[in-house]
Amino acid sequence: MPNPQPHGHRSLPRSRRFTYGVGHVLNDLCASMWFSYLLVYFHKVVNFSNVLAGQLLMVGQVSDALCTPFVGYESDRTRSGCGYGRRKIWHLVGSVCVACSFPFIFNLCISCSKSPDWAQFIYYVPFVVIFQFGWASTQISHLALIPDLASSPSLRVELNAIRYAFTVLANVAVYAIAWLLLGLEDRSNHHDLSPEDADEFRNLAFIVIGIGLFFSFIFHMGTTEPLRPHRAESVTEEQPNVQEDEENEPIIKKKLKRRKMTWKCWLKEVQFYQVALLYMCTRLMVNMSQVYMPLYLTDTLNLDKAYIATIPLVTYLSGFLSSFAMKAVNKAVGRKMTFFLGVMCVLFACDWMWVPNIGLQVYGAAVLLGVGGSTVLVTSLSMTADLIGENLDSGAFVYGAMSFTDKLSNGLAVTLVQTLHPCSDTNTMCKQAPCDPSQSVCCDACQSYYQQVMVFVPGGVGLLALLVLATLICKPIGIKTEFISERQMDNSAEHVPVEYGAIRSTPHMNDTDNSEVSLTTCDA
Q1: 76 plus 174 within the same structural domain
Q2: 37 and 133 share one domain
Q3: Contact in structure between 282 and 465 (CB atoms under 8 Å)
Q4: Which of 124, 228, 290, 389 lies 20 to 30 A from 482 at CA?
Q5: Position 197 pLDDT exceeds 80
Q6: Are residues 344 and 452 in the same domain?
Q7: In a domain, 501, yes or no
């Protein structure tokens, strides 16, 4: 088993890039099932009402939202993870929790499948909470490894692209297996989802866990976490800083001190909130379209149940192919323009789905959703890594805070959508018209509802993302660092800002100074 190595110049061989990339596959497989099939499974297979199914998803999202800052904070405080690595130890704990809890979620209530809905709801809640804690632990520790492993912005983009490529492959695997389980059955009179499909979802959950654990094993065996000492409130780096006086004589300033960013420091940074809002919009666009695509296909377009596997499969295949061009596009036009192009793809897809009865044209909209979703997700993660910059000691907290906004907003959005559903009370009672039990939807209002959700939710959030992006155009992304000399510090002289992320310049210093101090803008 690889041991942590000293932290220094970080260049990764291709093998370690691969082993890092597969470290989130277990999470990705489970997240694909969670977002794509949780609502449709509990509503059409377990027979929960729309509201109750949405509340279960809300419990999971709130649990994840509360766990992510906690995991990020504790991960940053962890010294060495018992010699295993402070990020990897949290990843291991999370993987175990996910593997032990997830199969129970997509399985009928053991010994209580005939109980009232509220009793079954209580049964599922503990497994959902444990799963979300494990998922958060794995996600935050894996993301926090990117700044630890990669010192250059281009390598961080590449690691994010590799990570997302495996995310797409994981989703492709889930949908392909679901298509085999649901679409290739010899049931000529069973085209809609029903309680008869419970075994297929259970088998899919077990297959997902098995594949995910295999790739988690590869990650832990092949990824070496750089060893970073637990630092005090400020860090002194023994490196010379050479300048020349008026007579061109060298002046060596031997100590460069940097005060580390704490969670209190981050909360004082405006850009922290801008990037968090951008990341939240990104996740809302991707996740809400993923959650409601199966219901849009079955209830609005009246397609066969096999399409809830094939259409998302096309979405993620297109996202996977586009991820290969992400590094080149970022380099050519920059982070912000790349994000803009991704949002425009999502908006075009929403406009396409507004057309009534598009039938199999939904494949075209699915391609645009895949390309746009892949682009904005990879770019927003790269922006988050740029925001962290060299502040690696608090990187996990930043990712945890970003994920907090993501999970909470998604849970609230799903709960609101399910509550506003025309048939939100039960699956057999409609507010606006009598229900026909032989139909997959109750009334015309129900049939068009998920079309409106797929158009206005991702589309509206995409417009909000463009507004947030506009506030970031004038400044590079990264936390500003200020340099002051000891004499300036004694005289309360004015600070000179010189650093944004990885872009650094040398400040003008008084030639009589013989030392230099680097401090962050935080006074904590």
Answers
A1: yes
A2: yes
A3: yes
A4: 228
A5: yes
A6: yes
A7: no
Split at pLDDT 50, 70, 90, the class of 80 is low
Residue 25 has pLDDT above 90, yes or no: yes
Is residue 281 located within the same domain as residue 172? no
Question: Are 177 and 61 in the same domain?
Answer: yes
Neighbours of 256 (CB within 10 A): 17
- Average pLDDT, whole number, for the chain? 78
Average pLDDT over residues 83-106: 90
Three-class secondary structure of residue 5 per DSSP: strand
Q: Whole domain around residue 283: which residue ranges?
A: 261-423+446-483
Rg of the chain over Cα atoms, rounded to whole angstroms, equals 25
Q: Which of 420, 337, 408, 335 lies closest to 378, judged by CA? A: 335
Say which amino acid occupies 120: Q
Query: Could you read off the pLDDT of 304-345 as tens digits, one per residue?
Result: 888 888 898 898 888 888 877 887 888 888 888 999 999 999
Domain final position from 226, 244, 278: 226
- pLDDT per residue as tens digits for the range 265-286: 888 888 889 999 999 999 999 9
| Domain shared by 198 and 51, yes or no | yes
Is 241 inside any structural domain?
no
Query: What are the φ/ψ torsions at residue 250 (nearest 5 degrees)?
Result: -70, 140
| pTM over the 0.90 mark | no
CA 75, chain centre distance (Å): 17
What is the CA 324 to chain-centroid distance, rounded?
Answer: 19
Pair of tokens at residue 325: 């061009």
How many CA atoms within 13 Å lie on the side-chain side of 195?
7
Alpha carbons 44 and 313: distance in angstroms, whole number: 21
